[in-house]
């Protein structure tokens, strides 16, 4: 596996303090081992016990039925996520506890108690009903990070509608594809959102998308910026006007545990994003428990996960997990360096954040901006730190630990995926020693295995292989929306009978997993998943482009940078202007996160005799390697490689 190189050697081991251990939900390695063993030996007993901490309208008959790839969890049980996240707490002293603390990029602040959020969600649930949304209907949510995003999600789950949240940074085209695939009936958007002082024109994008995506009957628009926006009478409605007219009582719909909860699109190794489908009972139970134990969450905590709700991290660990636990969750709308690079640290001090969960890319950016910015703030309320989305290099880990955590806060490096629904591999902060760069141990009920290309378990410590999961876990995806064959092919065909994650990993002698990154054609750019083929098809949709091949290059800040090799059609000449135009074109077709960092023109791409592009070679060339390693005997034209290197 050639991605190991980015990981520096760091042999030091860090331990949680005695004080932290003593107060932790899981305070020793023995306790972890005991529960882990139980979770594998008796999954039904284990998960049944966890699920009974939540409310069920009808109890399940069987905790687990069937096996991979099609397990069923909590069969026969009826429950509701919004009920468990809100009503359950409103009936207790938590009624007036802050559920959501929100800060807008320009600086506004809103605090919603559990009671407030409960009422707002019910009103919006009634709004959706009035617009004709029924159980099972899909609702697309294309919003900035505003409380209305959480309200809309919870309102959907309250009435059994299936939400599909599309990240506000995606383009009109990407939004249209996702609406069409889900056949959404209602779209919820805003007149705009703030980002780095500018305004993201969400409503314009939505209108553009709806020219093509015709299933949408109603558009609900949140007034966020007050900008003038185009309006289609009859179809478009202001959120606040609909809410004014809606009652604040709407009973939660009892839903079958295996009914669809939400769809979330993610990039895979083909051009088309996949709609990952999660179902109610298992997702709810798993996300509830992981939030509680991985973040050692207590009622006194102020918990802040900096992810956008457009990603799975935002679903599971900004909205659902914290609210299921009755916690206070912080939501921030904007950029980490707006107006200055200490915005995060201001927020930590202002609200007394005790748990902070963010991405390695953000940490590396903070390192670059200098420790002067965090040092201007106290940060003394923090007690636990977390990372997610990409491997964290030990240097960034140590900086996070020392400069932000002052050597006092354990760090959880959580490995998981859109498909897994919740955290799968991590240390538990009061139980485990931490090894920078290693995610840690499997969470309860998770049975990982590292397999070689012959599907044999890799037994030697520190030997790399494919990371697979061999047992069903409650929050696993159930299918790819509308494409059950792709579900099987993508996840269960590479290594028959087990779930293949797409990641490489190795396990050390203590059973700690180290994630090596994707082994398929998926890039991880600043913690965001992007399919190389998605970017390639965006490039070839430009009139000048004949062929394109996209690879990742190691990048000190973003983890991976996007490099595009492009051949031009007759009549087009390479130029700096065209290069910039192509970058802008990709940003327009997919969204700014997919903008290539580098476009290289070439007269041919290296291909095998059967016509497959040899990305492995392009990766080496993009990384600036002088000597091309590995077998090139299947190359159709060897001279292409030399010309590509010269063209650098
Ligand atoms: C990568 C994000 C190393 C991995 C929750 C995975 C990580 C992909 C980690 C999923 C981590 C996530 N260490 N790599 N702690 N967490 N990844 O679906 O390659 O956006 O397959 O889910 O991110 O990305 P996704």
From TrEMBL:
Family matches, as PROSITE patterns:
AMP_BINDING (PS00455)
- What's in the keyword line of the UniProt record? Acetylation, ATP-binding, Ligase, Magnesium, Metal-binding, Nucleotide-binding
Q: Which cofactor does it need?
A: Mg(2+)
An example of a Gene Ontology BP annotation on this entry?
acetyl-CoA biosynthetic process from acetate
- Catalyses which reaction? acetate + ATP + CoA = acetyl-CoA + AMP + diphosphate
Q: Which intervals hold domain Acetyl-coenzyme A synthetase N-terminal?
A: 32-85
Its cellular-component GO annotations read: cytosol
Binding annotation for CoA: 195-198, 313, 337
| Top EC class, one word | ligase
Can you tell me which family this protein belongs to? Answer: Belongs to the ATP-dependent AMP-binding enzyme family.
Name the positions where ATP binds. 389-391, 413-418, 503, 518, 529
Is Lipid metabolism one of the keywords? no
Protein known as: Acetyl-coenzyme A synthetase
PTM summary from the entry reads:
Acetylated. Deacetylation by the SIR2-homolog deacetylase activates the enzyme.
Residue positions of the PTM N6-acetyllysine? 612
Q: Which InterPro entries match?
A: Ac_CoA_lig, ACAS_N, AMP-bd_C, AMP-bd_C_sf, AMP-binding_CS, AMP-dep_synth/lig_dom, ANL_N_sf
Q: Which GO terms describe its molecular function?
A: acetate-CoA ligase activity; AMP binding; ATP binding; metal ion binding
Q: What is the lineage of its organism?
A: Bacteria, Thermotogati, Deinococcota, Deinococci, Thermales
Q: E.C. number, please?
A: 6.2.1.1
Q: Which residues bind Mg(2+)?
A: 540, 542, 545
- Does tRNA processing count among this protein's keywords? no
Query: Which residues belong to any copy of the AMP-dependent synthetase/ligase domain?
Result: 87-473
The cross-references to HAMAP family, in alphabetical order and at most eight, read:
Ac_CoA_synth (MF_01123)
């Amino acid at each position: 596996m050639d991605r190991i190189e980015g990981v520096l050697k760091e042999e030091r081991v860090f331990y949680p303090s005695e004080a932290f251990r003593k107060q932790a939900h899981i305070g020793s390695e023995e306790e972890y081992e005991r529960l882990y063993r139980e979770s594998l030996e008796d999954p039904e007993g284990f998960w049944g016990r966890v699920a009974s901490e939540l409310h069920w309208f009808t109890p399940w008959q069987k905790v687990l039925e069937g096996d991979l790839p099609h397990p069923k969890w909590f069969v026969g049980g009826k429950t509701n996520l919004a009920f468990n996240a809100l009503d359950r707490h409103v009936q207790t002293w938590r009624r007036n506890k802050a559920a959501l603390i929100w800060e807008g990029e320009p600086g506004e602040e809103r605090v919603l108690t559990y009671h407030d959020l409960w009422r707002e969600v019910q009103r919006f649930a009634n709004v959706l009903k009035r617009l004709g949304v029924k159980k099972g209907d899909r609702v697309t949510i294309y919003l900035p990070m505003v409380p209305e995003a959480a309200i809309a999600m919870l309102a959907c789950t309250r009435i059994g509608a299936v939400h599909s949240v599309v990240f506000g940074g995606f383009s009109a085209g990407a939004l249209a594809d996702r609406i069409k695939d889900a056949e959404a009936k209602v779209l919820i958007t805003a007149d705009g959102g703030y980002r780095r002082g500018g305004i993201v024109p969400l409503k314009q994008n939505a209108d553009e998308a709806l020219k093509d995506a015709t299933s949408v009957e109603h558009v609900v628009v949140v007034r966020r910026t007050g900008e003038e926006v185009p309006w289609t009478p009859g179809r478009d409605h202001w959120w606040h006007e609909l809410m004014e007219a809606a009652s604040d009582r709407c009973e939660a719909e009892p839903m079958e545990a295996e009914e669809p909860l939400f769809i979330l699109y993610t990039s895979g190794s083909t051009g088309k994003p996949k709609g990952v489908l999660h179902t109610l009972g298992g997702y709810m139970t798993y996300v509830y428990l992981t939030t509680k134990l991985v973040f050692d969450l207590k009622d006194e905590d102020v918990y802040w996960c900096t992810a956008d709700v457009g990603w799975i991290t935002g679903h599971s660990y900004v909205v659902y997990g914290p609210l299921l636990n009755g916690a206070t969750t912080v939501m921030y709308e904007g950029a980490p360096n707006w107006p200055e690079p200490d915005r995060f640290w201001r927020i930590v001090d202002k609200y007394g954040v005790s748990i902070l969960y963010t991405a390695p890319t953000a940490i590396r950016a903070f390192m670059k901006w200098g420790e002067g910015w965090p040092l201007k703030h106290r940060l003394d309320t923090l007690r636990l730190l977390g990372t997610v989305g990409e491997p964290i290099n030990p240097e960034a880990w140590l900086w996070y630990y020392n400069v932000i955590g002052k050597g006092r806060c354990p760090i959880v490096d959580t490995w998981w995926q859109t498909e897994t629904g919740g955290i799968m591999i991590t240390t538990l902060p009061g139980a485990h020693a931490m090894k920078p760069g290693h995610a840690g141990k499997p969470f309860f009920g998770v049975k990982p295995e590292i397999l070689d290309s012959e599907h044999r378990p890799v037994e030697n410590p520190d030997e790399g292989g494919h990371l697979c999961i061999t047992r069903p876990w409650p929050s696993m995806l159930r299918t790819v929306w509308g494409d059950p064959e792709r579900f099987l092919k993508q996840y269960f065909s590479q290594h028959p009978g087990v779930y293949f994650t797409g990641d490489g990993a190795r396990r050390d002698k203590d059973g700690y997993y180290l994630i090596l990154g994707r082994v398929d054609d998926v890039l991880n750019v600043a913690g965001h998943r992007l399919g190389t083929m998605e970017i390639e098809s965006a490039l070839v949709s430009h009139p000048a482009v004949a062929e394109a091949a996209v690879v990742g290059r190691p990048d000190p800040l973003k983890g991976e940078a996007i490099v595009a090799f492009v051949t031009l059609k007759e009549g087009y000449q390479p130029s700096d202007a065209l290069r910039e135009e192509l970058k802008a074109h990709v940003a327009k077709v997919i969204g700014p996160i997919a903008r290539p960092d580098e476009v290289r023109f070439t007269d041919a791409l290296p291909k095998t005799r059967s016509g497959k592009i040899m990305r492995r070679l392009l990766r080496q060339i993009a990384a600036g390697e002088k000597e091309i390693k590995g077998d090139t005997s299947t190359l159709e034209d060897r001279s292409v490689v030399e010309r590509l290197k010269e063209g650098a």
